Amino acid sequence: MRRYSFRALLAAALLGFLGAPTRAAESEIRIDEAGYRVYGICSGTLRSARGFSGSLEVRGRRFDGREVALFRAELPGWTGALAFKFIPDENLRAIFLAGHDAERELPLPRTDPRDAAARRFLGSLPVPFRSRPGAFIPNPARLSARDPGGAGSAAAGLFGRPRDPRAAGILAAFGIGALALAAARERAGRAYLPGLFALAGAAAAVLAAAGGPDAVLYRFPLPDLRGPYDLESRAVILRSPGLVVVRFDPKDGTPARPSFSVLGIRTPPGRSVPLSAFPENALFRFRDPPVILGDGSGTFSLYFDGFALGWELHE
Questions:
Q1: Could you tell me the fold of the domain covering 23-107?
Q2: From first to last of its 315 residues, what are the pLDDT tens digits of the chain?
Q3: Would you kindly state where each structural domain of the chain is located, as residue ranges?
Q4: Which entry of 43, 76, 148, 203 is 20 to 30 Å from 18 by CA?
Q5: Distance CA 201, CA 194 (A)
C-alpha cells in the first residue's frame, strides 16, 4: 500500500478546494427592472461573497458589438455589495462587470411602454453639433431655428467658456507686480530679470494650487417640442466648488419650466457633474452614454471624456 506524506495530502486538499467552482464566490450583477428606462437614470446592484475593492467598471455591449463604459467606481475599502447607476440608450443590449467571472453579460430588461412616445421623439433627434466652441458666452443670447434639430446646434454655439475669476485675479496681480518691477527697473539693475522670473513662478504656483478648470453644465431650455423658435435669453452663471452651471433663462425674467433642454457638459480630468444636478425622472440622449462615477458612499456623478452635447426631456 502506497503511503502519502501529510504535506502532499494537504496540498491536494487545498488544490481541490481552490479549484472547485463555487457559485457563492461569483460576482452578481442585477438591474432594478421596475425603474429601468431607456435614456433614463437606471439603478442596479453588484454583489460578491469575495467582496469588491479598488477599481470597478460596469460596461455595456452594443448591438454592433462595440463596448462602452457605463459606471466606474474607486472603492477605498472592501464591500460585499455596491449600488450603481447608468444611462442606457437604444443601442445597448447587455451589461457586464469588466474583469470578473469571465465577464458574463446580463441582457437588459424590457423598458416601460409608457415611455414609448418620449423614446421615439428623442431617438428621432440628431445629436446637437457645433464646429467650434464659442470664445465667450453671449449675454443676452439670441437663438433662431425652424425645428429642435436646428435649435440644438444653434444653442451649442452659445456654449462658450465661462471666465474663471480665480485665474483673472491671479493674472491681474501678476500684471500689477510686473508693472511695479518695470517701474523700478533702473534701481533693481541685474535683479530685474530674476525678480520677474520669480514673480512668474509664483503666479504659476498659485494657479496650480487653485486647481484645474471646473466642470461646466450648460442648459438651454426650449419652450416646446416642435418649433420654430425665436428666443432671446440671458445667461445666468451659478458657481459651486468644482462646478459651473450656465443656465439660459428668458430675457423677460419669466421663470422657465425646462421640460425640454439642450445640454452641454464639459468635464476636465478630475472633474465631474453631480448626478443631483439633473432631474431624476428625466430622459437623456447623447452620442454615447456618459460614465457614472461612484465611490461606494451612495454619491454619484456624471463624466464624459471631454465635451459632450445632448438632450434632456422630462414632464
A1: Immunoglobulin-like (2.60.40)
A2: 444 454 544 444 433 433 333 333 478 899 999 899 999 999 999 998 888 888 999 999 999 999 999 999 998 888 899 999 999 999 999 999 997 665 688 999 988 788 899 999 999 999 998 867 667 899 899 999 999 999 999 999 999 988 765 544 444 444 454 445 455 555 555 554 564 455 455 544 444 444 468 999 999 999 999 999 999 999 999 999 999 999 999 887 665 566 899 999 999 999 999 999 999 889 999 999 999 999 888 899 999 998 999 999 986
A3: 23-107, 118-161+213-313, 165-209
A4: 76
A5: 10
Convert the pLDDT of each residue in 207-233 to its tens digit.
444 446 899 999 999 999 999 999 999
Distance (Å, rounded) from C-alpha 60 to C-alpha 62?
7
Q: What is the pTM of this model?
A: 0.77
List of residues 6+ apart from 68 with CB closer than 8 A: 59, 60, 62, 92, 288, 289
Task: Please state, in angstroms and rounded to a whole number, the distance separating the CA atoms of residues 136 and 219.
Answer: 15
